Known about the structure:
The chain is α/β, with parallel strands linked by helices.
Amino acid sequence: MSRELAKTYDPKGIEVRLYEKWENKGYFHAQVNRDKKPFTIVMPPPNITGKLHMGHALDNTMQDILIRYKRMQGYEALWQPGTDHAAIATEVKVTNVLKEKGIDKLAIGREKFLEYCWDWREEYGRAIINQLKKLGSSADWERERFTMDRGCSEAVEEVFCRLYEKGYIYRGSRIINWCPSCQTSLSDAEVEHEDQEGSFWHIKYPIEGEEGRFVEIATTRPETLLGDTAVAVNPEDDRYRDLVGKMLLLPLTDRKIPVIADEYVDREFGTGCVKITPAHDPNDFEVGKRHQLEEINILNDDATLNDRCGKYAGMDRYEARRAMVEDLDRLGLLVKVVPHTHAVGTHDRCHTTVEPMIKPQWFVRMKEMGKEALDSFHRGEMRFVPENYGKTYEHWLENIKDWCISRQLWWGHRIPAYYCQDCGRIVVRRGGAPETCPQCKGRHFVQDEDTLDTWFSSALWPFATLGWPKETPELDYFYPTDVLVTGYDIIFFWVIRMMFSALEQTGKAPFHHVLIHGLVRDDQGRKMSKSLGNGIDPLEIIDRYGADALRLTLITGNAPGNDMRFYIERVENSRNFANKVWNASRFILMNLDGVSLHEPASSELKIEDRWIKSRLNTVVKELTDNMERYELGIAVQKVFDFIWDEFCDWYIEIVKPRMYHKEQDPDSANAALYTLKGVLAEALKLLHPFMPFITEEIYCSLRPEEESIMIADWPVYSAQACDWEAEQALEHAMDLVRAVRDVRTQMDVPNSRKSKLIIVSQDAGIREIFSQNQTTYTGLANASEVCVQADESGIGSDAVSAVIPDAVIYMPLADLVDLTKEKERLTREQKRLEGELKRSHGMLSNERFLSNAPADKVAAERDKLAKYEQMMADVTARLKSIEEGLSV
């Protein structure tokens, strides 16, 4: 017996209840089951730094759609969830919170600070998970992981030690990106380049021993000249050939630096003379290595000048720049200042301008692992959806540099390197410091202060979460994973690093497909951000419209890799669709109340029953194919159109008379109700991955004998279930109804007024279709009677016509309008138009108007005249038809 639905759909009233039911029943939990094929998705772990945003909502909606779909298909579907410690981002948040309380991070020390970080993780990590649950995410929360939990930390330590032992991790002094605000090193991927207004300062460097002779250099960072150790020219540049090997007097210092020749210098750019500052420019660093130049660091970690900078020591870098430029100008060494827009590297989190600096750091050697990640992609072991993002992947790997993995932070995985206090030997090992030094047998060790880049641990996520490095049953069964869903903005940050880490540690690509989605932008196409204040809280949308409405909005029109715009109007449309589904289902359930159904014989099915079942079968095939190709936006549109248009607006309306007259034809009513119930149930299954809550509530009311739609079988296409005859017949009927409704709308015919329909077709097959299936369209077309014939004999000249494929429909004008009243109305309209035409002709024949009025006003008047003339022609033709009708 079906259960009744509430009168109105109230998302708040069902979503919490249904989610608790799903969790309590254990539907989200996946187990190693050799009788089933596994399907695995790892959740990109959200940072524990804030609230769910629209990017999270889109990302997790897509994953949930896929996991629900595969679960219904019979797979052992695991959606592995978790959160990320987020290193810099979390440390900054906690530090700022402590500052507001008057607590200084350095004063309380590392251990106490980490206690605050773990408290933060507990509060905000739990909040993020609860927000994901509000969205309907059916992740296996029993397997929830955190990038700094015990198992993940052991995996991080193991990978670090393995790479170090293989020679892929090394410690060295190299140019790195340094954030003076966060006071930590950054990888190249954490640096954003933005155009900034600046200047080229042209400065003269005197040549030693040649009074009055200089070389001229141009720089965007004049403060760095204090770290110059050479000036370079191109060896093929005839202008400076004689200067190579000579010494220059470095301005504002007492040092002398050489002129060197290096092919790095572009003869055509600037003056052709380039200052070389090996400690503060990555290109200069390489030049310095080739020429054995000294590396002079002039900056402190906070970007003030250090004690090697004489009177400028202690100044901020920009303050020092101003002071040095003034001194150069006073000494006559400043040639000119030229405005210049150039790309400046900034930290992607705090947006501070980054300083290239030489520092001792830990690096991962990327050549070998990068090549394997590229080769694996070329072998087809991992594919992007859409495929064009493979070019981005290739570009990053073909140009990859060694990865700086050490960070000057406290929150994160501490580097497992230990320094012998007696001899300085570095020992990298698992499980903590050694008891004795392998070199000097000393027993005093101190661990490296630095932590690892957060992406080092995130790179291990697909296999570390399944128990690696232990050989667990879960790792053997669920790995490699099937699809990674992520944004195009972290292909280098995360996708590439997971690829080379997984290939190195497991010998397998971590996922078969990478499904790329775009950004969620505001209604003006702008990226949502705090600075613009245009962010929309998904939880507020859920509270107002329900999670299903938000999910449907995010996925409708969504195409892999493309950005989407978010409009509140679209959410309202999605809510309206939910109401449509609810009301249609409630109508069906009300008509099923107290009715005992039986499966009808095929002969008892009407053409419309056969049609809707065949259309459902076709939609099952098309939608399933779309899902397999990750075309989620196309898939949801298919089920949306089927439910709203074909099922609700056509099928339900066609069969209503059969339900209302059960007593006259009980077999027909049974067939209609049986088909309604069956098709609704299957349509709800197709809709479930996209709108899980409303489909669960309706399905369990429709089929209370079943536990949940979540564990129902996904509909399967059958070639034998195709009924092309029924589909063709209903297509013609719908064409007829649409055409008739268009005519009636244009003529403002009230619904209560019925009209005779005369259907003319020279095709005998088409005539047979319309003759045999009159009940499917007579009511919907407001027809008083229907005549189907091969020619136009007997049709009055006043009949209104509408053309549809393979036929023409005629309706007597007298059936549509009261001819006498319509003649009076059109006569009044004719007189009005005569006045407008007279006025318009008068203006356009007036030379003063034509010569003095603005051109756009004259053009507008000509457009009006053309419109009035067309309207007059239409009215005249209508009057003629009516007069002919009245004379009959």
